[in-house]
Design goal:
Two copies of one chain form a homodimer. The first copy, chain A, is α/β, with parallel strands linked by helices. In chain A, 52% of the residues lie in helices and 12% in strands. In chain A, strands 3-2-4-1-5-6-7 form a seven-stranded parallel β-sheet, sandwiched between helices. The interface between A and B is large, with 95 and 95 residues.
């Protein structure tokens, strides 16, 4: 069955794309094989990651940006990721307003939108997002916009695994900007102040510009994240944002070349996937009554419950043994 | 220096407690040794984990619950954890209203409040929360309330590592309850519908009661999570919530005994710590240019960039080798 879908997929059939996306999201047994087969063709799309706090107006911004990017003639797809879904029921994605993307030009695919929500407690969202991105890339979308709700580690990780990472803030966050900087500045290639008509916008822009200059540019030496102001409600600033993304892309290409750019993104992807695989593997080992590294869980718990060993040392020792490949 | 603080800590000096909490939160080099020394004394506190979506009114509820629990004569401490802090600047904790806890009775310590916010991108929040809990326990607090913003894996994990886990919902979440159930029902020992005067409260209560009955009771066979209605603004329902926590505690004690109860909590703690240690270890290995398991990162990236290997397989293989202790 998977063979037929795959050949239709390679022939450009959108329904087969949708079916493969679902198959991959559901963790179908064929998924690994399909992805391995598709992967060599998935090497061309430029990825923009967009993140920010809930309520920053990301979804409207992303819709407008996708429409703007279609003007280049490239085919554009959006993946919207909500790592908070076990608690919000995916509401942060669900209340997204339907958006009329522009008619495609000749040779251009219609804009494609897909959401990816965490299914319960087991995780796996970084992996399924990456799998979807690979499928969309292999299908021929040249630009992927990956929108992620910026809460928690997974939201940050997913946004960081892009060629250009855009962080969206709103003026309300002005007072807390000192505290926010650590996590945000670290992953931002471009900063957006949305709802820029609100009071406090100018101060926030100034603060961000200053912070961006001081920022340790570990991602890309020589690049200072620009601060773009937008009003998603009116579309103001969207063309500027698209332009800044192009500038960042050109800068990266000139510094790193296309292979270097892909390499640095794939390093982050690999790191995200490793973290998730490890979490799954630890859960499995514990399910089988063992600590990773092989020490029986019951024996360790005996020591910890009796107060003869503390759980911090027990966890650290297990991981150290594991990382050294000791039995 | 640490020795002097430790002996003052054991003598009941609150300032030394505060200093040790800070020292541990900052990841001071002496932290491991101090915790190992303190750990054998930290075996008595009953831990209540409280979680729920931002805006559910948890902080007011927790303040009132702490005040209510002080009536028992036990000493009560609160740790409020915000895993979203890189994005909110800890605002979800910061806007907490100052609360006048009751005067302590003879032999009772004053209520203690402490917040724990994620410091940037590196994580470690499950660990620092647990370390704080161990210190507060060893200091003599008999009840710990651990409040955690219920977004993302870490928020859920921290709430689950308790003796009684309380999940707080508000009527707005009514429509999405189907989608929420997976993550919430799995960790809830008690369900609270806060802001119970709002429209939709009765429906939500009905839905939750039904879901709670159908729930696979893997945590504690024979226990059906009760649904408590509260209005944190007026204090309505708080005594009922405290009562349900006592009922759950008695039920667990009768089924598992004190050692069994501690054991099942410590199992979850150990799992959380393992996950975090592994994340740190993976970051370190990658920082040193290796995949966990020892394969050179550069070589793997060469294959992935060239499209000869996909990142999903590369990550999975590395983790499988690691878990088997292969070099």
């Amino acid at each position: 069955m998977a063979e037929t879908i795959l050949s239709k997929f390679f022939a450009g059939d959108v329904r087969s794309l949708s079916r493969l996306l679902t198959l991959v999201e559901d963790g179908h047994p064929d998924a690994s094989r399909i992805l391995a087969e598709v992967y060599p063709r998935a090497r061309h799309a430029y990825r923009v990651g967009i993140t920010g706090a809930p309520g920053a107006g990301k979804s409207t911004l992303v819709n407008l940006l996708a429409a703007q990017e279609m003007q280049s003639g490239d085919s554009v797809a959006v993946i919207a990721v909500d790592p908070t879904s076990p608690f919000t029921g995916g509401a942060l994605l669900g209340d997204r307003i339907r958006f009329d993307y522009p008619e495609p030009k000749p040779g251009q695919k219609p804009a494609f939108f897909r959401s990816a929500a965490s299914r319960g407690h087991t995780g796996g969202l970084a992996r399924s997002t990456e799998e979807m991105a690979v499928l969309l890339d292999a299908f021929g979308y040249q630009r992927l916009i990956i929108e992620s709700v910026g809460v928690g580690q997974v939201g940050l990780d997913i946004a960081e695994a892009a060629d250009t990472t855009v962080v969206v803030l709103v003026p309300e966050s002005g007072d807390d900007i000192q505290a926010e900087k650590a996590g945000l500045m670290e992953i931002a290639d471009i900063l957006v102040v949305n709802k820029a008509d609100r009071p406090g916008a100018a101060t926030l822009v100034d603060d961000l510009r200053q912070a961006a200059r001081l920022r340790h540019a570990h991602r890309l030496p020589g690049w200072t994240p620009p601060v773009v102001t937008t009003r998603a409600q009116t579309g103001e600033g969207i063309a500027d944002l698209a332009q800044q993304i192009e500038t960042h892309r050109s800068f990266r290409l000139s510094q790193q070349g296309p292979e270097g750019m892909r390499r640095s993104r794939l390093k982050q992807v690999l790191l995200n996937l490793l973290r998730e695989e490890l979490r799954v593997a630890v859960n499995e080992a514990v399910g089988q009554g063992k600590l990773p590294g092989g020490r029986p869980l019951d024996g360790v718990l005996d020591e910890v419950v009796a107060g003869r060993e503390d759980p911090f040392t027990a966890a650290r020792t297990a991981v150290l043994r594991l990382m050294k490949g000791l039995p």
